[in-house]
Amino acid sequence: MSNRVVCREASHAGSWYSASGSQLNAQLEGWLSKAESTIRPARAIIAPHAGYTYCGACAAHAYKQVDPTVTRRVFILGPSHHVPLSRCALSPAEIYRTPLYDLRIDQKVYADLWKTGLFERMSLQTDEDEHSIEMHLPYTAKAMESHKDEFSIVPVLVGALSESKEQEYGKLLSKYLADPSNLFIISSDFCHWGQRFRYTYYDESHGEIYRSIEHLDKMGMGIIEQLDPMSFTNYLKKYRNTICGRHPIGVLLNAVAELRKSGLEMNFSFLNYAQSRLWHLVHHRKTQTSYGRHMRLSSPARTVPARLGWFLQEMPALLIPLLLMLTSHKPSSMGKYLLLGTFCMHYFQR
Predict the structure, then answer these.
(1) Computed over its alpha carbons, how large is the radius of gyration of the chain?
(2) What is the tens place of the pLDDT at every residue in 122-158?
(3) Which of 59, 103, 161, 238 has the greatest count of CB atoms below 10 A from its CB?
(4) Per DSSP, which regions of the chain are E strands?
(5) Within 13 A of 115's CA, how many CA atoms are on the CB side?
């Protein structure tokens, strides 16, 4: 029998956030110093899981509300991005590594959850591929550093749950939420907009696209603040907003609803909102970029006719292969000329 401790490595360190403990610590301290502690101690927070370059400052507003003097166990619920799950999954690891210090998984709670038969066991590879939980580990370590030997974590990977499953997991976890020494961290970004995400909802009445996205997200945030799981479900059905942590949020809302049945009231408030593409926002705060059917006749920008613009845009794709054909001095096969010629004919037709 092997007594080797299974450790999950900080697989996204060095890319999504700094792998240097001292540099990471300085960054976290900088972001936290600019956030205010307004509703401390928090019993649950919702924070993003993008790279720290994009969301580090925003996440600080949530983690500033964590009180390490009362928190002894931290549940981290993150959505599954890479593997299909219809339930929730637990990690095979005992230790989660971070550049700051190692975090210990609460094996007693894990054993109790496993006994329910509601959880799967994910592989270590799946665990290390997933970022939604890992992105909260350095912030958790930083927020709890004054009591780093006095707390444990309970990471839970949340699958694409049905409404009934969200209710079931919410009911199960509600007893842990009722304990003031437990903190719940819900990992979630909000709207993922664009063709890449197959989501291009745009309400022109709000102005530019990023304004429409902001309005849509804040509508959802307002509904989450009501702590009503059914209202949040109806919002998602109506707008299809691509909130990747919608199922962890649904589990939390159902846990709160379960506690309300016993007369325990909770309040929830969002403290900060930010969109990742800051360069895009800065640009559009300075100028109104018009294009296509959104072009205003009074636009002060210099423009070219659409067909000419398209022709100029496509010309390099036509001229470069043509140049290769005309300037090549090496013996070439007919196949090469046929391929390049066909390519040029295709782009000339375009």
Answers:
(1) 25
(2) 999 999 999 999 999 999 999 999 999 999 999 999 9
(3) 59
(4) 7-8, 44-47, 73-79, 88-90, 95-96, 103-104, 119-121, 152-158, 182-187
(5) 6
